[in-house]
Amino acid sequence: MPSHESILADLDNDPVLQLLLTGQARTVAEAEEMYLNASLPEVIHLLQSSLSDEELGQHPLLVMFRRHGSRGWEDSLS
Amino acid sequence: MNTALRLAEIVTALEQVELTALVMGGHAVRYYGFERNTIDYDLHLSPSDWEELSSRLNRSTLSAGRPLIPGPSWRPGSFQRFLLGHLADGRDEWLEFWRNNHLLPPFADLYDRREQGTYGGRTLAFLSLPDLIRSKETERETDWQDIAVLEEIADGRLLRQATAGTITVEQALARLRSRRGVESFFQSGLLRDSAVVGQALMQTQLSITQAILLPFAGTEKAPPLSTVPMEPVVASRLRTVAPASPLHLSLIEVVRRQYKLAMQNVDAADKKAIRAAQANPPPNKP
């Protein structure tokens, strides 16, 4: 089980949470949109890393891109 | 009276005073299949009718003997609006005309590509679906919500046309934009022939479509320069990623977002330039 310190450190490093806590965004959806709009450098950094395609496809940032992007057919079933 | 019938009535009144226009905006979105509320009537007027627009409107049945009241416009040379009346809930009912829209090609081209269909009980002429999508690439987030649905509708049409053989697969692929479109074409086997995909890739200047096609194409050839160029690291990865994999679908969305942000910036810059020109008009000639 992660310690309180590591949980707090994770929260400190969460860019979406930071946007909410600093009042730059009013909702989670708005914060995620703002984060994605500014995230191209982070995407490039990830693509230049040693992560495999499978690992990149499951990375939270790239999952968020899919979630906020054009709908797939499975989205209409949920 | 519902708004579709009202629009049909308005177009009939415009025709009676020989004003030529194409329906755009929310009613065109509804015509193409996205049921959403709209209370304004947006039209692209033939530029040759522009100078006489006000006088002809006031001769039409829309004026009912009283001159229509023009509304404010911060693009007075390109856009005019007139107050038609008030809805039952008290909201204003506006009739809006573009002479030339900064996002669209000249009216003659739009008119050549127009789509005619039944709406409000009669045949009306609408902006073509690709032109309607282009007209909505603005700063406004609500326009991009329309685009997301219109892209799916456009891709559904392309799939039907390609399957029926009324357009080639290559032509359809060169216009693909939505994730549902990708999934439908993939499941139909229409993305299987890498040579056809490669030919489609060479026909599109839209970075979103290029991002969709690159992994399926398996070509080293560079696609045409896109209107919003792809980030090279992203473009390079798209050449090696497995087609339709989670990473591929994510990278399409990365490219789509960069395209959207770029187009929003273009629209914002256009508005800023107009505001600056209005704030600092050129000195009058002696």
In a nutshell, what does this entry contain?
The complex is a heterodimer of chains A (78) and B (286). By secondary structure, chain A is an all-alpha fold.
Keywords:
heterodimer, A: 78 residues, mainly alpha, 6 helices, globular, B: 286 residues, alpha+beta, Beta Polymerase, domain 2, five-stranded mixed sheet, two-stranded antiparallel sheet, 12 helices
Question: What does this protein structure show overall?
Answer:
The complex is a heterodimer of chains A (78) and B (286). By secondary structure, chain A is an all-alpha fold. Chain A has one domain. Chain A is built from 6 helices and no strands. Chain A has helices at residues 4-12, 15-21, 28-37, 40-47, 53-57, 60-67. In chain A, helix 2 packs across helix 3 (28-37). The longest helix of chain A has 10 residues, at 28-37. Chain A is globular, with a radius of gyration of 15 Å. With 286 residues, chain B is α+β, with helices and mostly antiparallel strands. Chain B folds into 2 domains: 3-128, Beta Polymerase, domain 2 (2-Layer Sandwich), CATH 3.30.460.40; 141-267, no CATH class. Chain B is 49% helix and 13% strand. Chain B has 12 helices and 7 strands. In chain B, helix 6 runs parallel beside helix 8, helix 9 packs antiparallel against helix 10 (207-217) and helix 10 runs antiparallel to helix 12 (246-279). The mean pLDDT of chain B is 94. Classes of the chains: A mainly alpha (78), B alpha+beta (286). The interface between A and B is medium-sized, with 22 and 28 residues.
